[in-house]
Amino acid sequence: MAAKQPRKTNTQASKTRSGPPSALLSAVGKRIREVRQAKGFSQDKLAYSIPLDRAHIGMIENGKRAATIPTLVKIALALQCEVGEFFPPTRELALLANVEGTGA
Q1: Whole-model pTM?
Q2: Distance CA 20, CA 39 (A)
Q3: Can you tell me the mean pLDDT for 89-101?
Q4: Among 11, 39, 41, 101, which has the highest number of CB atoms less than 10 A from its own CB?
């Protein structure tokens, strides 16, 4: 009987998305890029101030990687803005995330 291969945990699995980025990740990444550029930060300067790899910042901005909440907070602190500035209005978010309102 062949030995069972250990299952990958979340920390071992690749966090890079294959295929086209989701509309939601692309929208958030675009807004992060817009805020970064408006504040006069290059990807290198932002990456150094967090610290995070510049390529990681690029993947977030291109919607190829989802930023964790702690990473979003670090980016917001470095850019001296609110985390909420990275997200489109709620109605647009619902469309991008393909969810309907809760009706509450």
Answers
A1: 0.75
A2: 28
A3: 79
A4: 41
Alpha-carbon distance of 29 to 34, in angstroms, equals 9
| Residues in the chain, total | 104
Give dist(CA 46, CA 50) in Å, integer: 6
Is 67 within 8 Å of 74 (Cβ atoms)?
no
Under DSSP, the state recorded for 51 is T
- Which DSSP string corresponds to 6-44? PPPPTTTS--SPPSSPPHHHHHHHHHHHHHHHHTT--HH
Residue 60 has phi, psi (to 5 degrees) of: -65, -45
Phi/psi at 22 (nearest 5 deg)? -70, 155
- Structure tokens that stand for 6 in this block: 């250990």
Q: Is 19 left (phi over 0), alpha (psi -120 to 50) or beta?
A: left
Q: What is the mean pLDDT of the chain?
A: 83
